[in-house]
């Protein structure tokens, strides 16, 4: 089937991902941008901008020691928090951080409008995409399965809903964070009863990334699965209406 010629397509299927328009809460996107710059754009499937902001966050956060400062603040050690921060890098961080939140909110409002126009246009969609590397197709999937695989390893839930780009990124990113935080050696020490050594071995500057990562992958994998199920139903409905429903049939609206 050739690509749709719709003015505003509802979805784009490639061998590596399914990119679709659907309604989102701007405040939810802004929250994830607040928790981690770049995650708001990743939620909107704007990968280029998202990866730029995420890579910048890794660089500038480690230079400014922001996660370390957050850890000390949560412990009530405010003097240590202030001493741990690098003021030169911290000031450079603020502009990008505010931009990520603003851009996530603004983009969501615009994309919601595009979705409403695309849904009204009700153009045909490509249901299957085949390529030399992989094939992608609309199908019904179970959201709880996406959650379960995401809990086992970040990225697997995204692979389940065929968001290969996000899945591959979270494979690499989470592995990097776990390695530099020394989480697995700390788990090993804890299981052998060496709790003090386990605590000492952890690098909290890196470990503090994990809560934001896990919260995001759970939400994104689950919502992506739900919305792709809706997309499958819309495509199937369009096909049945145009191939099996009489043109004279009047929809019984209440």
Automatic annotation (TrEMBL):
Transmembrane segments: 27-44, 88-105, 168-186, 206-226
Keyword field: Membrane, Transmembrane, Transmembrane helix
Domain of life: Bacteria
Protein name: Uncharacterized protein
Species of provenance: Paenibacillus xanthanilyticus
């Amino acid at each position: 089937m050739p690509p749709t010629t719709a003015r505003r397509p509802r979805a784009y299927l490639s061998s590596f991902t399914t990119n679709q328009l659907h309604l989102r809460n701007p405040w939810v996107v802004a929250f994830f941008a607040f928790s981690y710059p770049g995650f708001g754009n990743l939620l909107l499937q704007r990968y280029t901008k998202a990866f730029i902001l995420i890579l910048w966050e890794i660089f500038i956060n480690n230079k400014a020691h922001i996660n370390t400062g957050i850890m000390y603040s949560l412990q009530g050690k405010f003097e240590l928090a202030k001493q741990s921060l690098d003021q030169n890098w911290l000031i450079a961080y603020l502009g990008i951080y505010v931009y990520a939140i603003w851009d996530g909110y603004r983009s969501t409002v615009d994309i919601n409008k595009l979705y409403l126009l695309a849904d009204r246009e009700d153009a045909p969609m490509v249901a299957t995409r085949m390529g030399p590397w992989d094939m992608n197709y609309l199908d019904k999937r179970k959201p709880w399965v996406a959650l379960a695989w995401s809990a086992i390893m970040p990225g697997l839930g995204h692979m389940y809903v065929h968001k290969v780009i996000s899945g591959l990124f979270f494979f690499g990113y989470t592995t990097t964070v776990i390695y530099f935080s020394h989480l697995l050696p700390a788990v090993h020490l804890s299981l052998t009863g060496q709790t003090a050594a386990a605590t000492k071995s952890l690098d909290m500057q890196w470990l503090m990334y994990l809560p934001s990562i896990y919260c995001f992958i759970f939400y994104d994998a689950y919502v992506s699965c739900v919305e792709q199920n809706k997309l499958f139903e819309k495509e199937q409905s369009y096909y049945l209406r145009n191939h099996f429903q009489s043109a004279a049939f009047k929809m019984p609206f209440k």
